[in-house]
Amino acid sequence: MRSKEPKRILILGGTAEASELAHRLARETPDTIVVTSLAGRLTAQPDLPGIVRVGGFGGLHGLIDFLRLARINRVIDATHPFAATISAHAALACAELEIPLEQMHRPMWRKHPGDRWRWAETMEMAARVAAKARRVFLTIGAQELAPFARRGGPFYLIRMIEAPHRALPFRHYSLVLGRGPFALAEEMALMESFGIDLLVSKSSGGPATEAKIAAARKLKIPVLLVKRPS
Ligand code: NAP
Predict the structure, then answer these.
(1) Helix or strand or coil: residue 223?
(2) Strand order of the sheet with strand 223-226?
(3) What pairs with residue 159 in β-bridges?
(4) Residue from 210, 207, 156 nearest 187 by CA
(5) What local confidence, expressed as pLDDT, does residue 172 receive?
(6) What's the number of CA atoms in the CB half-sphere (13 Å) around residue 72?
(7) Which DSSP letter does residue 121 get?
(8) CA within 20 to 30 Å of 122's CA: 29, 68, 172, 225, which one?
């Protein structure tokens, strides 16, 4: 009886990989019902096939309820490597309901000769190091800027996908909006024109944002990488 049930897949998304996967499943397995879940951090949502739901589930128990109600029988966690809470909830919920769970792994960037990398365990530690630089390119997204703002200090070039609703609490900063994939020449031109002397990034990995790492290598700019959550 169970095998006759249609496949209902939940993709936990918010990444380019999740969008590509949703499109591929829609193309290759048209009988499958695909639900993509987005946290809803951005105003503009990607154009996705299938069903799209937006917003948190209301914690682990909310996710368990959702999986039961939507009769999901496979979950693919395609979230960002730094989205640790939802990944943990997915693992626990799927174990509880005995639903198969796959996790998409985004490969780490590989260090090349000429790379000047330093590592920070946390955003707080990264902010402490960044405070000693002069002109910092901050590419950590919009959610975790507070430790950097609190410390004052350098000029920050801050990259985000969408403009914030209000001015950021930094003393000296410029905002640049953009979403990957980025091109090497543009990343180099941006860093040169702002006289950047430190790039701060999450160790997100993946090709879409790797050009900034290559640009820093070419320009001999040190890179401060925040470690992935375990
Ligand atoms: P997080 O810390 O793991 O999640 C915080 C809460 O947001 C979760 O407990 C959950 O709320 C909700 N949530 C997260 N992802 C969700 C999803 N795909 N669908 C429904 N609810 C979700 O995650 P985060 O770091 O804030 O990232 C949020 C989303 O942005 C993720 O989906 C991730 O793929 C994407 N993203 C994150 C980063 C990053 O650097 N963190 C970068 C690019 C994209 P409830 O507990 O209420 O269910």
Answers:
(1) strand
(2) 117-120, 223-226, 198-202, 135-139, 155-160, 173-177
(3) 176
(4) 210
(5) 95
(6) 28
(7) S
(8) 172
Is residue 36 a contact partner of residue 18, using CB atoms and an 8 Å limit? yes
Structure confidence at residue 111 (pLDDT):
97
| All residues at 6 or more sequence positions from 9 whose CB lies less than 8 Å from its CB, including other chains | 25, 32, 33, 34, 35, 72, 73, 74, 75, 76
CA of 204 to the centre of ligand 1 (A): 14
Distance CA 96, CA 183 (A): 43
Two tokens at 109? Answer: 């960037």
**For residue 3, is pLDDT > 70?**
no
The pTM of this model reads: 0.94
How far apart (Å, rounded) are the C-alpha atoms in residues 80 and 19?
A: 12
The amino acid occupying position 217 is: R
Residue of 64 and 153 predicted with greater confidence: 64
CA 106 / ligand 1 centre spacing (Å): 16
Alpha helices in the chain (DSSP H): 16-28, 59-69, 84-97, 123-130, 146-151, 184-193, 211-219
CA 83 to ligand 1 centroid distance, Å: 5
> Could you tell me whether strands 155-160 and 173-177 are parallel, antiparallel, or unpaired per DSSP bridges?
parallel
Q: Which of 79, 105, 123 to mutate to test the pocket of ligand 1 (most atoms within 8 A of CB)?
A: 79
Q: Which two tokens stand for residue 209?
A: 């944002």
